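Exercise (ungraded).
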Amino acid sequence: MKKSLLIFLLGIFSAFTTFAQETIVKGSVLDGTTGEPIPGVTITIEGTSIVTTTNSNGEFQFETIVPLGEQVLKIESTDYVTKRYPIVVNEGQTVDISGMTLDYDSSDKKDLFIISISDDNLNSEDDGLTDNVSGLLQSSRDVFLNAAAFDFSATFFRPRGLDNANGKVLINGVEMNKQFNGRPQWGNWGGINDLQRNQEFTMGMSANDYTFGDLAGTNNIIMRASKYREGGRVSYASANRSYTGRVMASYNSGVLEGGWAFSVLASRRYGDEGFVDGTLYDSNSIVAVVEKQLGDKHSLNFTSIYAQNRRGRSTAITEEVYNLKGREYNPFWGEQNGEIRNSRIREINEPILMLNHYWEITPKVRLNTNIAYQFGEIANSRIDNNGSRLDAINDGQYGGARNPTPEYYQNLPSYHLDDPNPTAYDYQLAYIAQQEFINDGQLDWNTLYGANAINGYSVYALQSDVIEDKQLSFNSILDADLADNIRLNANFSYRTLNSQNYARIDDLLGGSGYLDIDAFAEQQAGQQSVGQAQSDIRNPNRIVTEGDRYKYNYDINSDVASGFAQFQFKYDKIDFYVGANISQTTYQRDGKYENGFFKDPNPALGETGFLDGFGDITSYGESEKLEFSNYGVKAGFTYKITGKHLIDVNGSYFTKAPSIRNSFGNARQSNQIVLGLESETIQSFDASYIYRSPTVKARLTGFYSGFQDGTDIGFFFTENSSNFVQEVQTNIDRRHIGAELGIEAQVTPTIKLKAAASIGQYTFTNNPDLYYTAADFSTIRTLPLNGIPTEVAQKTVLTYGDGTTALKDLHVSGGPERAFQIGFEYRDPDFWNIGVTSNFFSHAYVDASALKRSASFTQDVDLLPTLPGVNGGVDIPNNGNFSGYTFNDYDEEVAKELLKQEQFDSYMLVNVIGGKSWKVGDYFVGFFATINNVFNQEYRTGGFEQSRRVDYRSQIEEQNNDGGPVFGNRYFFGNGTTYYLNVYLRF
Amino acid sequence: MKTINLNKIILLTLSLVVFSACVQDDDFDTPNLSFGEPNIPASQIRTMGSLAGDLAQAQDNFGEIDYEDESTVVSYTFNDNDEYITGYVISSDEAGNFFEELIIQDNFENPTVGIKVLIDVNPLFTKYEVGRKVYIKVSGLSVGITNGVLSIGVLNGTEVDKIPSGSETNFILRSNDVETIVPLPLTISSFSSDKTNMMVGLADAQFNRNEVINNSLTYAAEGSDEFDGERTLESCTSSATVVFSTSTFSDFRGLLLPSGRGSINAILTKDFFGEVFNLSINTPEDINFDDEAMRCDPIEISCGLAAAAGPNNLFEDDFEGQSVNSLISGNGWTNFIEAGTEGWEAYTAGGTNASQGVSARVGSFGSGDSSSVAWLITPQIDLDTNPGATLQFETSNSFSDSSTMDVLFSNDWDGTEAGISTATWGILSDAYVTDDDDFFGSWFESGIVDLSCATGQIHIAFKYVGSGVAEFDGTYELDFVSIDAQ
């Protein structure tokens, strides 16, 4: 730092001490640690389009005429921290700023994200509540986004309220977001940080060289062997958040004789448990990248990534459980043979192979063509407690057990106190339950094994829900400088996906086999074993064993073709761009099982595979092919008032095909397509004022995003219809507005102060449409069978009241809507640094139950006349619409209170970060450490309302329970004080 | 020229290996599930029967348990030498027909007493399968009558209630001894309260024809089934019947009842109100009925009900002419006591349980009979010469319990008392006869029972079957018997 300060001063004085006729700006750039010259550094004169790069000796000189007066040089290079140098250019003089240094961007900071990202991803049940976009932001150098990525991410803070599915992650220009849910699967490239330092982040919808992008931004990770700096690195990290240890080693050859370059990496992350109990971590990653330059114009790169990841999961818990067991509690594990065994393991095995061709057609036109193939599976395990046995003589099936989770509601004190007037006995039960839960409260594996052993079949089994994908992607990206100030980017891409979805028996837990029947299916008189309970009527009463598929089995086939074009214009005063894309998306389900609830139609009975008001009622074979045509346009400009003051404006309008997950109403059992399914329409607009001086950088942005016709599907058990239901919301409109601010001041060469703030409001703007389906929801319709009007039980969807849910003006859940940071960094010239930030969060909201805010809330099931023998115990009015049976004691004022959306308490988190490095001979050694949440603040990062007992009367009962609600809100809790320490050796 | 430094790569590889750490993988061995036999000194083991004795003593009921007394409870306190009972599990919640109760009997064969262990645990079959010997720690628990049967659990106020789930292992210990339960052979008429909570075997039984022949009912999935589906199981060796009860939460609720005839093993228990014997099975595998052709159904006349009776009266009796408190006689009646001491007699009564002037009644309450069978038979009616014949009568009951009164007919009875037992008697199934669920003070019309689809000469009989045992000692009342024709 001393040196750079010296050079900084020299740079200014040199302007006065050089004698020459021409006005020349030149210099050289060195590595701040090694003193070696750095080639390929981009030098820009800010506020102009004047750019040059350093040569192999790290030297540069501007070829074009440099404007006179005070200017700021921006010096940037991948792997290095960008610097800005003020200079004064006088006519006819030479400015020589040789010996500028760039500090190696240790990037160890980036490791932090990988931890928090994988944490978040891990808990995510695709509910959109817990995912995190910080992974997108890690390469951003924006002050605000840095705060969001480093310090806000632990709280599930989302910049502009946008989630993962609103951002794009590319590797070498190939989109990595999953078609299934639109989200990147971070685990697919976890633990390979050393080879992911080259990242290009584009904020929001602003111009991107590769793709149309999305609202939360686009991050392209460049993994080309020729782009890595020669050398190797070994590091070891210790932490107590998710993994406890990580070792990583990588080596990059640089470009060798003959144009070859290669990079290899191997890493391992491990831990028996993270901050939350029982969350094991077991992950190995290997990467190999090879590139061969073919002549001057072509280069061929091959990248292969295999990041295998096995994690023990945890879950959101209720207030009651939190009070008894604390935030580290995890109900998913129990001891087996003295070892901790977690029943919910997520295992990711999806290697990526890609071949990239880079072609410099002319110095101004570049074409990049990629083929990528990804295959493998994601498996999520859990205990299947539904094992039964067949009584072939009586055609019966017996067995099935209660959910063995220790936090099952009947094991908790609140359950015993749900009587309005609990007796002494109730309190005794509650007390004993409480003591039992406090003293044990973990899964009892031995009981599961014991049950299987004495009954001879698997009452319990360990299963996985598996998604086995094969995806082939192809794209071609054109980058052409049409003129000095006009640039064209275009992209054509196509990808085809075959996704096999099924349940698999992983462990019979000592049992001999599992009867592939739904033991909870409502029996039809006299025909259990061949009836609805069958997973596959074509193979009834199958006994499955370890490794077998069972329960459900279907493929989703998807094709996406898209085209994108964008023009970027750069002028002295203004830069602007326009872009557009079009795409075509198709999805088709292909059922491999004929489910007992969704049998093939019998034409002899006049049945078809289609029902009015319900859709496809078959399960076997191909569904209707869904097709979505989408388009988007965007434009924006940056107006440079002066070099210091800029105005940046972006706007976009586009439509987005729904994800696979949100397209099929009940994919595990049927071909039914979501009723009223449409592409989502999105508009966004943001305007920023940007200030930058040599010592101060600041950005203030106002933003607006509007979403229409969104879709969301949920699955849960509810007592309102005594059923496991699929909840389908369509026509969801929401609006995200707010402002964000980032400011950074280099007060002295060693001390930097920074502040960031975001204030937003993310709300629903309408009452979305809402309907429910369940395998045995049926209603009576009169149909002309053979010309005779006949009453027939038919499948139906269930709606409440006017078929909407009153979400209007409620908040879209997901992280705090307000976040503030102040912090400082001290960077000592002796190669050590320390930083402290204080972060304040508020206005986070619980995810509101749609069922609770539908007319279901006011409807008294007991008032509904029973329709005997038809609905299998589920009372559904004849038209499938439940209304007109309002509770006779319904009180609007009381209801208002019950329906309030919970807002979480605000909190403050203090984080400390620091590090030091040394040069030892040819080696560089350093360490880097953080302590997060120094004051061990307890806080909630998110949560959701359970939809199990949400009618008016039940809610009153729940609120009045002495022991707290039985089905209260579930919360995700933030980590307490945690540390992360990384030591490395670089050569 | 750049070269690859092999040494460095080797160093890297080595460091990875060195740093590598193990995390428990997916392959868990099956845990060792064996456990030691509970080590309880014989001196601390009591017999199940002695608990029953304690209760009887507390009830102060002449050394016998009063199964209707649900308010007396015997509590056993903890002490230094906790006391235990042992028993063999006979109930299973595998198919969901039992819920949060474990029924055990004192031996796997020839049991003398059974008890219901109330416990707030579900499922139980995963640990306590049928035949498993268990130790129940009595100290800290209470014994009493719940739902009409002997039960053990914790004290809730003044009644016995479920043992909290958290205390399960404190009060129930498993033995390694697992035996095959040998059902206790019984007939329906020999059911008694002290045989409840036992696995009993009925040798020759079937479901009533209205549930499996004329209709095809499920175990417990009819629209009218609430909590339990109650069906009628009848003996083929006597006219005795018993309620066969299945939970609407059972896995087999939707299965059809077996229509044949044969043996059944079931747990003898009582209904929710503790009043009526019930049989309940663990799974339909406990029923071993063969095909329909072997059934022991009575012949029957079932022409439905007529809109109106004809003008031509063939026989009637309002019993006003009978002498009160004497057996019914005259007017063509045959009054025959086949077994026991009780027969149809004339009576009058006022108040809530009033007669209709003089009425007829029969009942074995207080008789001391081990079996009471009484017949009241009309004169012969010629259906061939009297088209459009109908039968009407009224019945009332006074705590009929499990005693029965059937309306029968015969084409071949010779008119002698000796011939009654050898004649073929069929039933008039359309006639409504009051049952135990009806209010005892009311009289119920039989309906205008149409006889027009039958032919020949018939006698109509009102047959009572009961005994002096409390559950079978009910009383039936009869009046306004009238047979008419066009």
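Further reading is listed at the end of the chapter. For now, observe: Confidence is low (pLDDT under 50) at residues 1-20, 106-131, 868-873 of chain A. Residues 940 and 973 of chain A are 4 Å apart (CA to CA).
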